[in-house]
Amino acid sequence: MTTSTSTPIQTVRCQPHASFELEETKQNDTDSLLYRSPSYPNTNQQRRRRTDAKLSSPPPSPSCQRSFSRDIGHAASETYLVTRLTIKLLRYLGVGYRWIWRVLALGLYATLLMPGFLQVAYHYFFSSQVRRSIVYGDQPRNRLDLYLPENNDGPKPVVVFVTGGAWIIGYKAWGSLLGKQLAERDIIVASIDYRNFPQGTISDMVKDVSQGISFVCNHIVEYGGDPNRIYLMGQSAGAHISSCALLEQAITEYEGGSVSWSVSQIKAYFGLSGGYNISSLVDHFHGRGLYRSIFLSIMEGEKSLQHFSPEIRIQDPSIRSVVSILPQFILVHGTSDYSIPSDASKTFFEVLRRLGAEAELILYSGKTHTDLFLQDPMRGGKEELFDYLVAFIHAGDKEALAKDAIAPLRPRLVPEILLKLARRISPF
């Protein structure tokens, strides 16, 4: 990564089954500390789907857009669904003081960031480059949003994004800021919705996400996407769910089961502020208000914790060989993340490295659970994680990299004073 200021950091480069080598480098972001493993070619040589025709996204004609009345009807039905599920959820949560505090803090947090949320919402609802609520399955929440670049001069790389939300309040629109900003760099984003608790439990969530990935892999060409350049990304609970879906798919594929998409179609996996050994996080979540009883209900009981912990499951000798077909893992975490401690990414990285997987760990010193995903992007200007993602996805595309080099800085969406206050009050 290119740098401009001179704050020294340590970069740890890791070869599978090899010792650590330390080297001094310089960094432009005084808040960042990077741990990396080097890139090397994926040994998986499975055949990828290719296309012969020139691809372009459908023209953004108003006549092709869903009518406003239909949008209102869809929004009303989803509001009714969420309200009904919220009432049911309250029976699980009770009225614990931690939960009450977090609800109040969440309301204040959202109010402070409202200037940015309103701008993003306007783009989400009124931009012709956003295709909302595309159906990918037969369940009520089986919808995804597509964020399309204005430039349709050829097939674009694709990021499949799975939002967080503590397995309870996840929603596809939470990816609208990321979708807007990546689309401005000629990258398509597909933000997947999935059943939350209590509408569904973890196996339902993993199934939904896998089905959404399948839709993208098989249909993104129709929207101008390149089926040979698909990346999977999850944030917080979304990182956990998407990593479970990826591992489950790899196991099914390795054992010769019937599949509708292949892990070979995923160029890389980005896990942002995720937890990958949930059996070690039960007490931590309980102390932060996600009570043991509700969390175990989400995870389908204590006996299922190991099954839905990729860090544990991948070490099972009977399935360890699936590592050979997994894509590269890039795990990103802030060291001041109290919702899911950064050790969650560290230990998963160490397990992947020990098993011979291609993995990279990036730790940002002093960053919280929401800094990397919300506050920093709303601050505008240059931002290291965003620049890293774009450079990684555009690697090898000289024309795209040249455009990135002269791209205008992202605008500030929220005044600095409000961002600082939101950081202090954040319940995450």
UniProtKB/TrEMBL annotation:
Keywords: Endoplasmic reticulum, Golgi apparatus, Hydrolase, Membrane, Transmembrane, Transmembrane helix
Pfam families named among the record's database cross-references: BD-FAE
Membrane-crossing residue ranges in chain numbering: 99-125
Chain residue ranges for the region called Disordered: 26-68
Catalytic activity as recorded in UniProt: [protein]-C-terminal S-[(2E,6E)-farnesyl]-L-cysteine methyl ester + H2O = [protein]-C-terminal S-[(2E,6E)-farnesyl]-L-cysteine + methanol + H(+)
EC number(s) per entry: 3.1.1.n2
Family indicated by similarity: Belongs to the AB hydrolase superfamily. Isoprenylcysteine methylesterase family.
Name assigned to this protein: protein-S-isoprenylcysteine alpha-carbonyl methylesterase
